[in-house]
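Hi,

I'm pasting everything inline rather than attaching a file, because the server keeps stripping attachments. The sequence lines come first, and each chain or strand is labelled.
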Amino acid sequence: MSKSAIITIGDELISGYRLDTNSKWLSKNLSDVNIQNLSVVSVGDDPNAIIEAIANECDKSPIRYIFITGGIGPTDDDCTYAAIKSFLKSDEYLDKDYLNELSIRFKYGQKISKKLLIKQAMKLRDVEYLPNLNGSALPMFFVRDKITFFVLPGVPSEIKDIYKNSILAKINKSKLSRDELTLKFAGISETVLHEKLESVLKNYLKTVKVSFLPNFRIINLRLINTSEDKNILKEIKDNILANLGDYCIGEGDITLENAVLKILISKGLTLSLAESCTGGYISKLITDCAGSSMVFKGSIVAYSNEVKAKELSISDDFFKNYGAVSFEVAEEMSKSIARKLNTDIGMSVTGISGPDGGTEDKPVGLVYISITYLNKSFTKKFNFRVNRDGHRLITASTALNMLRLMLLNKIDFSDKKK
Amino acid sequence: MSKSAIITIGDELISGYRLDTNSKWLSKNLSDVNIQNLSVVSVGDDPNAIIEAIANECDKSPIRYIFITGGIGPTDDDCTYAAIKSFLKSDEYLDKDYLNELSIRFKYGQKISKKLLIKQAMKLRDVEYLPNLNGSALPMFFVRDKITFFVLPGVPSEIKDIYKNSILAKINKSKLSRDELTLKFAGISETVLHEKLESVLKNYLKTVKVSFLPNFRIINLRLINTSEDKNILKEIKDNILANLGDYCIGEGDITLENAVLKILISKGLTLSLAESCTGGYISKLITDCAGSSMVFKGSIVAYSNEVKAKELSISDDFFKNYGAVSFEVAEEMSKSIARKLNTDIGMSVTGISGPDGGTEDKPVGLVYISITYLNKSFTKKFNFRVNRDGHRLITASTALNMLRLMLLNKIDFSDKKK
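And the predicted assembly:
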């Protein structure tokens, strides 16, 4: 397996100003073509720091590819070009054809100065330039001391296209892809899952690399088979599904909302939502999925009590007797929305995400989730003591997982505990 | 200004499996206490790679702090403890009091094996341990060759609390914070903004470091004053606001939704939304902001035509004559929602985010955004030729910016161009 290193460039990346998503995307895609990334280094917009980082990675003996992202644009802070020029001790020249192309491209669009265009059209003689369909900064490709270099722009969408259109053809693709499997779990904590899996996994500790990656309410179990026996991962998977099937939402890149959508489509059931504290978040997650319009009809985001009363028929008595955040109001909301939008399933959420709005009886964090299906309702109380953003995220995930379990007939509708 | 380096540990970080958000958070917070982070290095769960990365950072002479995150938990893939033990050549011991505390803590919660607890209670003699209120892995603190080390868990929420409760007290806080300013712009492209600002910024190129950070529809202009003259940034800001005020949504951490919310609250105006292709995304963004309930009453997510007809009173004739994605339906939706939820402003969105659903007349990417305010409506057509996720994001940002401009009286309601 070939090894790679990634160097990401930009003051914004080392000062906490921007999240580096390129290295994650690149290393994931490299692993699909059997290139194992060994390190990610971020340095600022400083030619010396860039050259030092490159030299450092070159010294790590098995490295065969180095990917550099960012800092090849036309503005004054971009200095990766200067660093590569110095690293390669290369001459430069003005590519007049490219300058001409850029002038035409920008003539009809936004006005841009000649100075910037010229900076963008300067090229190094020792470098091959690759096309960039979505931007003006051209990626560089060169080989130095048996290491293949790609110098890319920093814009994620540009990198993705360049990777698919040019880089894949340049790197020596291995036919063998890595033998790995990721299973995703919901409704169980990392430690409990770890304990439950110990007896299954203990026989494979020498041959299979295991990691647990919790991400709010979802746990990713990643298994990498390092042996030659290609049946091992299937064996483990069957064993896990037999024991912990209810918790496993699927494998690979699947999300909770995609898992839910798949079951809804396969069963031909329609869904509507009534959201209070999540304010449209669950609807947003479901409609993130292409194809959601087949089963998802719509929602009412009832952020105010006025909208809850008028659009979801919550009576004054309910507000007075139970309050807007209550078992009773949640249940009434899920019934109303299913009836009103004429769907098989109605799901509702009402809670207090904070930071304000809590009382002694009903503290910040309290939330009720309710599902109505075939005239039966199931409603559950939760208390997530986290900040506002976390509360909304965990509430949305928990609701989606409740819906998934309901669709798999794992919910007992006769349970009326408040 | 002291310098730091961050080393993040985990196979998931270098193989593209998980995004590293800790280094961004840490370096941002360090800059607030006048520590400038110089690099971020990610390595896998491999003691030798960890030790090599530490040695490498130690060699960079001005480094005064090294922050290491991840790999100190109890599971088998965690090996940062072993790396630190080897780096420090330190003896270890079992902290029986801590083992006892962990046993009690886990007795009442989830079952966990003694073996894991013992791994978690092993300690190094040459290290000071800091408290961790949210997890079982204790952060380490030590000084070696004048460099101060903090070894932290990988869970973002734990790091944040440890930073606030322990690290801030340990590092030598400087009273001076960095003289910097970030201005945020919407409704203008990076190159056009760059051109327009050139005449303002050219006088400060030697004293002020400028970077442009575009993020979909928002551009962050970051200015760092490297001179002693503390009036410079204010001077630049005043100049920019005088020339480009309409495009500037604010400074610092402000988001577009927060900017909109601030104006709504200051003007005492209420808002409702009718969302089709964005499927609740705009409602989600607005309710991300604490305090949104003061002005935001709710939404109807009309993902199906049935819901558009029934809940937003779109007549059959409209669907037949114009189609669900049309100027006329968008305008009718914004009128209906304002009337129905009884708000000062109604905003609507209808479009085709793809990947399917486009026709020759109405291609994927087409979207109409409409605002109704005081019985007047303004509707605009857009075509964003990007993928589904990008389309939803850009549509949401564009709608929020249109609302912001409307609230600032920058929209001409008499413009009825279709």
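The CA atoms of residues 370 and 379 of chain B lie 4 Å apart.

If the labels don't parse on your end, tell me and I'll reformat.
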